[in-house]
Give the backbone structure.
Amino acid sequence: MDASGAPVRRRVVLKLSGEALGGSHGIGIDRSTMVMVCDEIADVVSAGTELAVVIGGGNFFRGLNEARADFDRTTADHIGMLATVMNALALRQGLLAAGVQTELQSAIPMSPIAEEYVRDRAMQYLANGHVVIFAAGTGNPLFTTDTAASLRAIEVNAHLMLKATKVSGVFDADPTKNADARQYATVSFDEVLEKRLAVMDATAIALCREHELPVRVFSMSRRGSLKRAIDGENIGTLVISEATS
């Protein structure tokens, strides 16, 4: 509650990977997965959360991987940014179908497909209960959508950043390769950087550390996980300034 007795609305930025929309194969857009994600978002918005989404494009194109092959890195990143716009358009359509007021802003101007990113306008949309989808990353090559999510979360004064992944949290080893990998309940930004834990890229982590923006890494595979993460339940891994694992 605030001083007037009104409930305090939490502002959250959700980083959603492109692969998360691709279902079990992680390619393209799986309709049932999209419906599930939109229902989860609708639930938390109806409960009063101000939610923005930064979405990746890896289900269509992964710029960094292609750059390691035969693509120029800048060109590859630009293609990857456009892939995020495709996902953002699909997610907006899904959310509108679920009855959620949704706005799409792109870091790369492309009217009439999407509005250009304007911070003050985005913050007004959030305050009015609209979901805002941020597409096209930062609008610049050489930066990941994780960095874009961290940047947008800081810019709109979010209380929390959520990163939805395929695994249940942050581990001390790759859980898909090591059955003995241990999941952290909490971990510090410094430890993430020192141990090179697979959370986000170093630029994104450094931004969150500098601005003391907590990050919760979790899986959205179970119904209700997004609401539980926003409500502060102990799911996934919480990345903060100081932590005891």
Notes: The domain at 11-240 is CATH 3.40.1160.10 (Carbamate kinase).
